[in-house]
Amino acid sequence: MKKFLVLSFSFSLFALSFTLNCYADFNDYLDYLGKERGHFGVKSENTLGAGEKFFIGGDINDLGTSIKALAEKKPFLSEKQTIGIEAGAAFLDDKRYKQETPVIGAYVYTDMDEYTRFSSEIKYSQPEIYHVSDAADERIKKHVGSNSVSALLFRCENSPVDNDDYPTSGRKTDMAFEVSSQALGSDFNFLRLTAGNAFYYTPVELNNPLSRLTFAFIQQAGFMNRFAGDDEIPFFERFYAGGTTTVRGYMPRYLGPRDKDDEPIGGNCMAAWTLEARYPVWKDIKAALFYDQGNAWEKTADLNLNDTKSGVGAGLRWVTRFGTARLDYGYGLNGNTRQRGGRVHAGLGMRF
């Protein structure tokens, strides 16, 4: 476990120090990179020549913390292809256990056109579960220690938007298919499909203040299934809902299947959607009103859009060149939960 964390941090420090040595002017090499799948951070492009890129960043929210570093080279086999390597780690502090997950991977992506990218990746992660409480569910206790997850990932991204960092018009679509198999060195056999879609609209034709109001409609869904005789998908790979990235107004990962003590254990299916109105209030500060709805279910067959939880709220967005900082207050509308009152959600980086 420690050697992977050392590798991840060393990779990050190497990329950062190399970038600093290659540019004399701070403003010449640091630039916000908003399309690294939800991570905020800084990049350096063309360090050693055309097509070179380094990225260092991460994500911080109430679901946990992650760090990430990558290096890319273009062209690879053709002018439209790019090869890259990445390393990182994610950290989660649950009251029943703690989790650290170092990740390393290599990928190739092809630019199909100006807005469409297809990528394939092989990645290895090593979730380590420790400090498990005596009251934790047996499905958690059985995975104490290090676990190995090797997977192949295929992804298609299409983003015809006016601004990739903070869109005001257009659409973003992201679909990914993942296979984890013991044949690849994994401890688990499962298939995972995730999809995200976002639409942005600003009524610029109106000659009044509403022409600065942006509407965003965001949809997320995920499905998993085991194969080759595995009895279950481990809890740390399953889907959860609730928190800053799905249904605000509820505690992180609060919505979905529960264990015997009514604590979240995750499901094999998730769906959530958001309607958000954003309005600039001062320079790079944006205000937002939102409505969220969604849930997670034990099996795909259990998916029921009438069985969802919803929340409403308001927040602020600070759009910087290094990423977008978010502060939201959400209030859960469903009274048949143990939670009372609303929740404050803070984070860095935007998934859509």
Automatic annotation (TrEMBL):
Where is the protein localized? Answer: Membrane
Which keywords fit this entry according to its UniProt record? Cell outer membrane, Membrane, Signal, Transmembrane
Q: Does the keyword Magnesium apply?
A: no
Looking at the keywords, is Signal present? yes
The superkingdom of the source organism is Bacteria
Q: Where is the signal peptide?
A: 1-24
Gene Ontology CC: outer membrane
Q: Which residues belong to any copy of the Bacterial surface antigen (D15) domain?
A: 46-352
Q: Which Pfam families match?
A: Omp85
Protein name per the record: Bacterial surface antigen (D15) domain-containing protein
The protein's organism comes out as Candidatus Taenaricola geysiri
